[in-house]
Amino acid sequence: MTAKFKSLGCALAAGLLMAGPALAQSDAEKAIDEYRAMIADGNPADLWEAKGEDLWKKKAGPKNVSLEQCDLGLGPGVLKGAYVQLPRYFADAGRVMDVEMRLSHCMRTLQGKDVKDAVYNKDDHKDIIALATYVVTQSKGMPVNVPQSHAEEKRMYDLGKQAFFYRAGPYDFSCATCHNADDKRIRLQGLPNLTQNGPAGRAFTSWPAYRVSNSQLWPMQQRLNDCLRLQRFPHPKFGSEATVALSVFMGVTGKGVPSLAPTIKR
């Protein structure tokens, strides 16, 4: 595997030095695609999925019950198709929730846990990430269908659209600065046009994803937080309206695109 990566790196460097800009970019993209195909075999997210399944079925908390009656929007315990219809409004919570927030809610209400979910990859949030990975896997290949029937769901879409185009911070950046047109890139990294159906749906359903570069599994909220960090925006709290609204905006824009998660990233 190491030798192949070195070979890819040499080929990539040679292409950049010897070819014209268009050809070099094409060769680089082919090399990156080959690399992604190589690392996709044996996604470590599978281990998180297995842990999530165990947590879903295991009795825990002061009430000593499992999460098998957790309602993710399609009825208690229904997992198939639930992820591709989130975020959505939940009357029992009085707000729009994504999969991470809803799992945290179920841990509190069903199991009676004092859930510590504020910091990613720490405390109870490690379990939430594992549970989310298990849940999203049950909808793999199913079309995105984030609902817009409730007034709060429509409000969150409008808020997400506003947040996507909102420019601020020391660099006067917005999400749209990088993601509102085709064929944009940062160095060799292609940037999806999130105003278009296909790219938005694929980006929306790519998370949770295992990131090879830091050996961590990132859920959607953490990925959005990192985008905001790169824009030099303040770090949002877990469950903030900004991150959930951005998810709603992408999910609605990506309607009908088959779900990919969990995936593996560089």
What does this structure look like?
By secondary structure, the chain is mainly α. The chain folds into 3 domains: 2-39; 45-137, Cytochrome c-like domain (Cytochrome Bc1 Complex, Chain D, domain 2, Orthogonal Bundle), CATH 1.10.760.10; 151-265, Orthogonal Bundle (Cytochrome Bc1 Complex, Chain D, domain 2). The chain contains 10 helices and 7 strands. The chain has helices at residues 2-18, 21-39, 45-57, 99-109, 124-137, 151-165, 175-179, 197-204, 220-230, 241-253, and strands at 88-90, 95-97, 184-186, 189-191, 209-211, 216-218, 263-265. Strands 6-5-7 form a 3-stranded mixed beta sheet. The radius of gyration is 19 Å and the shape is globular. Mean pLDDT is 87; it is low at 1-24.
